């Protein structure tokens, strides 16, 4: 038996995965267990889960790999953060190159040698080894790892060669994050809001945005550093950038003006222009039909769509956990290869259902002693009835918490821990926002569509199971809840092989309504991690206003809430507001370079 | 560009140097880090209390909506000038007095009453508490005085000073501050550069932990002095007298070291083996009734651990009490309560802090109500315990009445320059209703169990609850039993809704209770309830995890860890055994053959040894263990497995183990979380299933 564990931690979204006998059998982000959003601590809970899911113990682990090289990273951390390090002992502790090893020993109990895998090699491996391609070009783009911010590489069989890199501070990820900060959104979290805002504007500032970055022939580019401030520690942009655009930075949570929308459109277009240029270069260096992408920038699904449609590659695989969490996957795979393990499966990753699952008994354990039991229906003897009853509720306009099977790995809820609704209803976007998500009105929700009928409704000719591409909505149905202002949608295609119950639900909903599409968003409250277990689901259901919870074989309809819960909701609401205010006050709108 | 290249080169060279970890701490010497003062958030915000941190920080600035003046959760209403409880602070209502509106000052003298949870009347809140007792006592001996209750549970020194300053808006004639239980030093990593160098060195030395704790005590004393001076300054600025009420703690009936665990400091290889030997001998002698021998042996253990271990001090106190050495036992127990341990941040005033309040309080002209002295005078020579307290520091009704009588004497002196008789004041103090007192004891029983106290004291509170108010025994205790026996948080249960219909229960369970516990092992609580109410023993204590109805149990699941397990403070994927014997209760549907899977190690073990596995008191197997993880299985014969509750115990071998203190120094110098206690073993897996 060969067991390889991958760990990512100490920046954001820590995670653990496990490859057993060449197959990825488990992966999970730590935040789901601790309920601390973007938890970056050593993933001790996720590690325990992975061992258990794989049916192994720590004594069976062949090798444990960490997703970056702290010794290489420390010089870059010093470069970027020396003033802060000298003035703040806590920051000093973050640059300790021995911290990862110590905490892996102390927190996980792993006492053998640790494989350190360079950050971008982890990203590259997370894409290539799970792409199903025998040969592919590899393009990784993020904020920064050790020194690299962008790498160009090539994968053949089990060999990955990253032959060129762009070094910090020149970074497309930081470039995008800087404008995100300038637009008053949270860095390292809200870049996707800028992407969502872009269609509301016009790229009228494209030329000015492109002046921020010198895009050279070949793979290199350079940020024009007079517009950026990665050293001050207070913000990412300089006064010069504000002067350049003639507007002050937007105050967070303030009204969005047309300028902000146009800026979002401009930076999004700039990113697409540069990415297309660089993938063309990569293709020119090593012509092939296949491209693999990973790194936080690869979560920009609008750009991904452009890369595939307008770029030189015929096929694109983006690691669905493209950000740092996915680095755990790549690190484990690299360790597997380094150990000469030739059993590493080269199958394409078909799904992301790699997290914990819970039995009907586990669910009953939570539901039965609770006040919700009186409005719970048990369909354990009638799975078809469960699907039908759920579809009927959706057709009636109900918003449903959908908790089924193994939890997703990565940032997207893809039909295991989802909130779902009828996408045809004009009011649905506002309703879900009011009920549970409380997010900006401009952000669209995403659709899940039956793969067999995707082409009838979306301009897409291949499966898109991970919601990593956008495409045009061409449906004859009005789908206001999932159609963006530019008529695009971020599609998840669903087939019966990867998520049968979700597939069955889409079929049942289609039969009832003629619509094989559901609105699909993550099952969490604003600011919370996505639910993991039945207790989280039932509590999220209890304190939100979701109409029904479909959890494994149970359907629980909303009923009058116990008085104590109502009091707690008000208490929690007050506490949440203070937490946000404290976070806003304490958060420099800046990427942490440590 | 040139500057950047130079910077990169310098960073690279510095990074090369830092690869040698001894170099990293040098950066600290370049820092200008200062000792954190009273203005910083103290360690009380770690662990289960951390979720309150932002709430309290949300007060910063002392202003309400639209810049209105505010005193804690009360904000000034512009139209009336009255201070109204703000709904935006509803999450803190249960931590504060249940007062909607503080009216403008009338003709009566006004006392602003500030403090921590003891001053709040924890367990009685919001229906009964020190402030209302004080007001009644004052009314009985002189002109009526208004006591404005501004005490707040979880109040730290920084917030206490802020609140005192803000209280000026209420125009008080005197300030009473009943606090000191939450005044403690920050964690080691927050220390100054000077302290950093010295602290790190101490960690690796024999007796170093003892010296380090003394340093932390001195830091707590510095914070206390700063706090007293700031309080005095605030009172001086208002031109009113300051009365400091110096808290007392529960000495006789509170164990610092949770039952069944140990807090043995890391020591040298030989000292650890010796400590285990003499401590075990002491326990055996105590069990055999040879208390003199036990005292001698445990003194040897204390000599080895330097007085940094509550377990040895509390065993010493136990055998001294058995010999009638009350004064010595009391001293040992107070030493135990003075131990600084970051894994159990419990309120309770340190001796050094008490001394500072006495000394500096008088220096700054405050009147000091010395509760240890008041209690000693009033209750005689007995060691303070369950006669005055409900838990580690929170007072029962009698404790409150006597404490407030002492306070009333000081208020009368400060406001009216006269005196009042303590006994008369005690008698004038109202008592809670039987129902209120019953609820206080019921909640105290839950609280004591959650904080690792023994069955006897927990059962005492449950019995008292029912004797105070019989319906509690008939209705409420069965509801508590049901609310805490499931594998889901009580909050999600129907019985919880019934319980919190009572206002006192709601305040505790939905205020502190929601924060103080997550999913924890409740066998100790349930066992204590059954000890007091045996009829409840017929109801399964663990209905969701019955072996036989489910295939296997993961005994290391978070559900199985008690709240006071030190592992909760460290993000571990395994259980570190701080105890010589690790106990795991589980429920079986029937007598059946079981398989036990154990993945274990003894960290730093120099040689292998055997874990002795006991089931329901009988040895059922041995498992070889060394310093590497070992994966082993043993079969538990069906004749040993009972239907219902079973007790699995693992007894760790006392093998020589490496001295880990040097690694502690490195951890400290690189800012990592320190665990200064000995792990007698590690369990990465402990699973029990039906044998095939």
UniProtKB/TrEMBL annotation, chain A:
<dbReference type="Pfam" id="PF02543">
    <property type="entry name" value="Carbam_trans_N"/>
</dbReference>
<dbReference type="InterPro" id="IPR003696">
    <property type="entry name" value="Carbtransf_dom"/>
</dbReference>
<feature type="domain" description="Carbamoyltransferase C-terminal">
    <location>
        <begin position="391"/>
        <end position="557"/>
    </location>
</feature>
<dbReference type="InterPro" id="IPR038152">
    <property type="entry name" value="Carbam_trans_C_sf"/>
</dbReference>
<protein>
    <submittedName>
        <fullName>Carbamoyltransferase</fullName>
    </submittedName>
</protein>
<dbReference type="InterPro" id="IPR031730">
    <property type="entry name" value="Carbam_trans_C"/>
</dbReference>
<dbReference type="Pfam" id="PF16861">
    <property type="entry name" value="Carbam_trans_C"/>
</dbReference>
<dbReference type="InterPro" id="IPR051338">
    <property type="entry name" value="NodU/CmcH_Carbamoyltrnsfr"/>
</dbReference>
<comment type="similarity">
    <text>Belongs to the NodU/CmcH family.</text>
</comment>
<feature type="domain" description="Carbamoyltransferase">
    <location>
        <begin position="5"/>
        <end position="332"/>
    </location>
</feature>
<dbReference type="InterPro" id="IPR043129">
    <property type="entry name" value="ATPase_NBD"/>
</dbReference>
From TrEMBL, chain B:
<dbReference type="InterPro" id="IPR036514">
    <property type="entry name" value="SGNH_hydro_sf"/>
</dbReference>
<protein>
    <recommendedName>
        <fullName>SGNH hydrolase-type esterase domain-containing protein</fullName>
    </recommendedName>
</protein>
């Amino acid at each position: 038996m060969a067991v390889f564990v991958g760990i990512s931690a100490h920046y954001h979204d820590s995670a653990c995965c496990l490859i057993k006998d060449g197959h990825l059998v488990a992966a999970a982000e730590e935040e789901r267990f601790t309920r601390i959003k973007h938890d970056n601590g050593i993933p001790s809970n996720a590690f325990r889960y992975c061992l258990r899911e794989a049916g192994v113990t720590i004594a069976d682990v062949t090798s444990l790999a960490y997703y970056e090289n702290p010794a290489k990273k420390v010089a870059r951390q010093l470069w970027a953060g020396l003033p802060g390090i000298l003035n703040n002992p806590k920051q000093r502790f973050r640059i300790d190159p021995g911290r990862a090893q110590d905490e892996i020993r102390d927190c996980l109990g792993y006492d053998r040698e640790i494989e350190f895998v360079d950050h971008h090699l982890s990203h590259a491996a997370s894409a290539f080894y799970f792409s199903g391609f025998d040969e592919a070009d590899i393009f990784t783009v993020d904020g920064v790892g050790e020194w690299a911010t962008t790498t160009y590489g090539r994968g053949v069989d089990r060999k990955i060669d990253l032959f060129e890199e762009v070094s910090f501070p020149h970074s497309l990820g930081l470039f995008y994050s800087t404008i995100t900060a300038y637009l008053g959104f949270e860095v390292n979290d809200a870049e996707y809001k800028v992407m969502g805002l872009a269609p509301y504007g016009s790229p009228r500032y494209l030329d000015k945005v492109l002046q921020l970055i010198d895009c050279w022939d070949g793979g290199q580019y350079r940020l024009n550093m007079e517009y950026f401030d990665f050293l001050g520690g207070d913000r990412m942009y300089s006064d010069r950038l504000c002067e350049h655009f003639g507007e002050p930075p937007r105050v967070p949570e303030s009204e969005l003006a047309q300028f902000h929308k146009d800026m979002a459109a401009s930076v999004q277009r700039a990113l697409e222009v540069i990415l297309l240029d660089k993938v063309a270069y990569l293709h020119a260096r090593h012509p092939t039909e296949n491209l693999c992408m990973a790194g936080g920038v690869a979560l920009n699904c609008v750009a991904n769509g452009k890369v595939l449609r307008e770029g030189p590659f015929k096929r694109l695989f983006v690691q669905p956990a493209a950000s740092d969490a996915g680095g755990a996957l790549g690190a484990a795979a690299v360790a597997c290869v380094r150990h000469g393990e030739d059993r590493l499966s080269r199958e394409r990753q078909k799904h992301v259902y790699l997290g914990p699952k819970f039995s009907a008994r586990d669910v009953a354990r939570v539901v039965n002693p609770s006040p919700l039991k009186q409005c719970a229906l048990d369909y354990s003897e009638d799975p078809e009835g469960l699907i039908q009853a759920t579809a009927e509720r959706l057709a009636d306009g109900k918003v449903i918490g959908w908790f089924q099977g193994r939890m997703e790995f990565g940032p997207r809820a893809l039909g295991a821990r989802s909130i779902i609704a009828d996408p045809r209803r004009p009011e649905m976007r506002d309703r879900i926002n009011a009920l549970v998500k409380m997010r900006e009105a401009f952000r669209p929700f995403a659709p899940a569509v039956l793969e067999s009928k995707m082409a009838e409704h979306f301009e897409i000719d291949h499966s898109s199971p991970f919601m990593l591409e956008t495409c045009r909505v061409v449906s004859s149905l009005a789908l206001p809840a999932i159609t963006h202002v530019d008529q695009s949608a971020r599609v998840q295609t669903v087939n019966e092989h990867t998520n049968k119950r979700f597939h069955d639900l889409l079929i049942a909903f289609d039969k009832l309504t003629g619509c094989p599409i559901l609105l699909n968003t993550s099952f969490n409250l604003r600011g919370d991690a996505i639910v993991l277990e039945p207790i989280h689901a039932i509590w999220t259901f209890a304190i939100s206003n979701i109409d029904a919870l479909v959890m494994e074989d149970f359907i629980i309809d909303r009923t009058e809430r116990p008085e104590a819960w109502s009091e707690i909701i008000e208490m929690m609401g007050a506490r949440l507001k203070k937490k946000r205010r404290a976070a806003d006050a304490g958060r420099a709108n800046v990427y942490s370079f440590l | 560009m040139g500057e950047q290249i130079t910077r990169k080169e310098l960073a690279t060279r510095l990074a090369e140097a830092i690869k040698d970890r001894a170099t990293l701490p040098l950066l600290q010497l370049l820092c200008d880090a200062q000792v954190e003062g009273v203005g910083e958030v103290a360690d009380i915000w770690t662990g289960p209390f951390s979720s309150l941190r932002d709430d309290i920080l949300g007060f910063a600035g002392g202003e309400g909506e639209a810049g209105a003046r505010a005193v804690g959760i009360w904000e000034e209403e512009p139209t009336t000038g009255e201070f109204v409880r703000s709904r935006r602070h509803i999450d803190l209502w249960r931590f504060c007095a249940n007062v909607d509106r503080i009216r403008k000052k009338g003709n009566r003298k006004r006392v602003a009453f500030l403090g921590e949870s003891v001053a709040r009347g924890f367990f009685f809140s919001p229906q009964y508490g020190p402030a209302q007792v004080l007001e009644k006592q004052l009314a009985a001996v002189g002109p009526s005085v208004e006591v404005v209750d501004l005490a707040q549970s979880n109040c730290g020194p920084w917030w206490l000073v802020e609140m005192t300053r803000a209280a000026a808006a209420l125009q008080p004639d005197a300030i009473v501050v009943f606090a000191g239980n939450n005044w403690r030093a920050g964690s080691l990593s927050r220390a100054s550069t000077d302290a950093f160098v010295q602290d790190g060195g101490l960690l690796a030395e024999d007796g170093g932990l003892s010296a380090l704790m003394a340093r932390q005590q001195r830091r707590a004393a510095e914070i206390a002095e700063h706090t007293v001076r700031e309080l005095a300054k605030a009172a001086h600025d208002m031109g009113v007298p300051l009365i400091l009420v110096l808290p007392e703690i529960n000495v006789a009936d509170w164990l610092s070291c949770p039952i069944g665990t140990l807090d043995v400091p890391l020591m040298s290889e030989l000292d650890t083996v010796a400590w285990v030997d003499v401590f075990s001998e002491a326990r055996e002698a105590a069990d055999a009734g040879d208390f003199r021998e036990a005292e001698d042996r445990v003194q040897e253990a204390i000599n080895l651990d330097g007085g940094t271990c509550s377990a040895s001090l509390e065993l010493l106190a136990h055998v001294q009490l058995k010999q009638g050495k009350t004064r010595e036992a009391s001293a040992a127990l107070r030493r135990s309560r003075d131990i600084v341990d970051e894994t159990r941040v419990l309120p309770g005033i340190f001796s050094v802090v008490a001394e500072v309040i006495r000394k500096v309080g008088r220096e700054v002209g405050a009147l000091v109500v010395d509760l240890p002295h008041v209690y000693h005078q009033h209750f005689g020579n007995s060691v303070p315990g369950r006669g005055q307290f409900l838990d580690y520091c929170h007072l029962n009704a009698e404790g409150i009445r006597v404490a407030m009588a002492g306070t009333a004497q000081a208020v009368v002196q400060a406001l009216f320059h006269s005196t009042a008789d303590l006994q008369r004041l005690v008698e004038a103090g109202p008592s809670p209703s039987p129902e209120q007192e019953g609820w206080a004891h019921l909640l105290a029983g839950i609280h004591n169990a959650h904080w690792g106290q023994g069955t006897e004291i927990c059962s005492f509170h449950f019995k008292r609850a029912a004797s105070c108010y019989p319906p509690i025994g008939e209705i409420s205790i069965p509801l508590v039993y049901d609310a805490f026996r499931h594998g889901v948080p009580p909050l999600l249960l129907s019985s919880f809704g019934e319980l919190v219909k009572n206002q006192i229960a709601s305040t505790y369970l939905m205020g502190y209770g929601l924060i103080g516990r997550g999913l924890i092992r409740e066998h100790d609580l349930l066992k204590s309830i059954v000890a007091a109410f045996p009829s409840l023993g017929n109801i399964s204590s663990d209905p969701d995890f019955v072996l036989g109805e489910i295939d296997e149990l993961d005994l290391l699941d978070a559900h199985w860890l008690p709240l006071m397990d030190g592992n909760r403070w460290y993000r571990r994927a395994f259980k570190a055994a701080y105890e010589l014997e690790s106990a795991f209760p589980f429920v079986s549907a029937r007598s059946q053959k079981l398989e036990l899977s154990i993945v274990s190690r003894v960290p730093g073990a120099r040689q292998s040894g055997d874990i002795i596995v006991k089931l329901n008191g009988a040895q059922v197997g041995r498992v070889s263990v060394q310093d590497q993880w070992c994966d082993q299985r043993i079969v538990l014969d069906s004749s040993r497995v009972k239907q219902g509750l079973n007790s699995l115990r693992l007894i760790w071998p006392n093998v020589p183990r490496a001295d880990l203190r040097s690694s502690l120094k490195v951890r400290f110098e690189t800012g990592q979380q320190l665990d200064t206690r000995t792990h007698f073993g590690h369990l990465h897996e402990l699973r029990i299933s039906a044998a095939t």
